[in-house]
Amino acid sequence: MTEENRVRIDDPEALAALTHPMRTKLLNHLISAGPTTASQAARAVGDTPSNSSYHLRTLARFGWVESAARDAADGRERPWRALVTGFEIDLAADPQSAAGRNAATLAALTLQQAHQETREALARFPTLERAWQDASSFGAYTLRVTPEELTEVTRQIDAILRPFIAAVRDERPAGAELATVGFHAFPKGPES
Fold first, then answer.
1. Is 36:30 a contact under the CB 8 Å cutoff?
2. Alpha-carbon gap, residue 71 to 115, rounded angstroms
3. Residue 115 burial by CB count (10 A; 0-12/13-18/19+): exposed, middle or buried?
4. How far apart are CA 172 and CA 184, in angstroms?
5. What is the enclosing helix (H) or strand (E) of 82?
6. pTM (2 decimals)?
7. In whole angstroms, how far apart are CA 145 and each of 41, 126, 189, 190?
């Protein structure tokens, strides 16, 4: 995939479909790793092939992934591929609406999965090559900013990261591996 295809999801039913942990894992896997069969995807995300196939078909219903049809002549399983490179949700949606509730649930699930990946990365850290240990970072910053400044910080970080997104990066330099970079920006609350 050479073009970025980031989608905004406002539909409550589509948001609800993504609130299943296995679906977000499968979609993220296809976005980052590229086309793969349901069996390969299942191994990558810790699921069974039949369950992964079910969830991939659900993702396909919303147009986020697609599969080549199974060739009746040879019976081989065909790969699934992501049709999107990411998604955005409206966290400011009315919390009493289905869209608002589902957006909040999806945001919480995404954060939970990111924290799990971080814990797993920290556990693996001692086994990494020294170059990857030196390249890894686990930092948090407390800024004093206005809403406009925080918006600009987020925009600039996004601009730096965007050329390296796995789904849209055509080149694969020697020694390149998938890396997760997370970013959260929110007000801490009133100062005491």
1. yes
2. 40
3. exposed
4. 27
5. strand 80-82
6. 0.81
7. 42, 36, 12, 13
Contact (CB, 8 A) for 101 and 107: no
- Residue ranges and CATH numbers for the domains of the chain are 6-136 (1.10.10.10)
Contact 24, 18 (CB under 8 A): yes
How many CA atoms are closer than 13 Å to the CA of 154, on its beta-carbon side? 12
Classify the phi-psi angles of 149: left when phi > 0, otherwise alpha if psi is within -120 to 50, otherwise beta. alpha
Strand partners, 45: none
Enclosing H/E stretch for 9: strand 6-9
Q: Is the dihedral of CA 54, 2, 15, 43 positive or negative?
A: positive
Q: What is the mean pLDDT of each run of 10 residues along the chain (192 residues)?
A: 75 94 95 91 95 96 84 69 91 94 94 92 93 90 94 93 85 89 84 69
Question: In sequence order, what are the residues at sequence separation of 6 or more whose Cβ sits closer than 8 angstroms to the Cβ of residue 37?
Answer: 77, 78, 79, 80
